[in-house]
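Annotated sample (chain length 337).
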Amino acid sequence: MTFRTILITTRTLKISLPKTDQRLRHRKQASKMLKTLTSILLLTIYANAPIAQASPVIDGMFDLSEGYTNSYAVSYNGISNDLSGRVLTHQNGQILSVAVIQSLGLVDNAYSPKIGGKGNGIGTSGWGHKTHTLKDLANSDRARFQILGSDHATPVIDFTVDYFASVKDKKSITGYGDFGVNGKDGTITTGAVISTATSMGYNYSRFGSNETYFPLGGDEKTMDQTASSPIAKFVADENNGSVAYRYENSVEPDWVFESIYEFQVDLNNTPFTIDNLVIKDIHNSPFKVDINGGLSSCGYQETPLNTVPEPATFSLAILGFGLMRWTRKRMTLRQTR
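Output written by the structure step:
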């Protein structure tokens, strides 16, 4: 080997060694960044995933994260399937939790004032030309539920839940609440009822200080002519002959428009299947559609729980996967240089 060859080889090594070190450094940095992004993405998805609990919280607001494990479409006697409701259940040993959600096409928690004791001619949002008032909700709405025994005929649990009511001091309204089995229209005929709640009770727990929604001081006539729920747009989406109802653009996003009954009972060693649950009577005054009497269940069909992540979770996931792909691409390009 000549002196010139040795000199050239030495110079080549001196130049190439730093480049090799630089590539290794870039590769390590990219790998570290990729691990960090993966960790952030997994933590984000985990934080937004529904967390199963021992038993759902009985507060009148249905949330998938509460831990309900079974979902059913419930059909009622005398009404179309478009107006069928939803029932969710969760059993933890002898403790049975149930949420009964009525269709927004039948009834809801939207209400507006009557002017001079009559409808204002416009009607409450979602009620067509009808005016639905807070007095309607707080007057006589109720639901009766039964759990049948192993013979599928004899109720071992039988109770009625008062949906919502005002509290009066003489003639003046001092408050509101969902008093359940202890309300004016509530009762326990048999069985162990642990707790009950309704969505109007939940709304009052969140917005009770707002006297536009829950006026105080006057009588029921004053309540009838002044109370108004949060403004929202009622939408009926038609798809292949079926209709889905919803409210959107509410000034109070946390207001629950669905009429929901939640309850928890002790089965006391009674075997339970969904066919043992009887919705004996749901009384709404009024319904949105013409119905003689109340609702009674006539059948159930199992449906998916529909545990779909929130849109924010999807956005973060897409962003995370995009950054991971970009990082991996840069790593590949650097390795090929």
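Annotation: The helical segments are 3-48, 134-137, 199-207, 220-226, 311-336.
Annotation: The chain has two domains: 64-306, 309-337.
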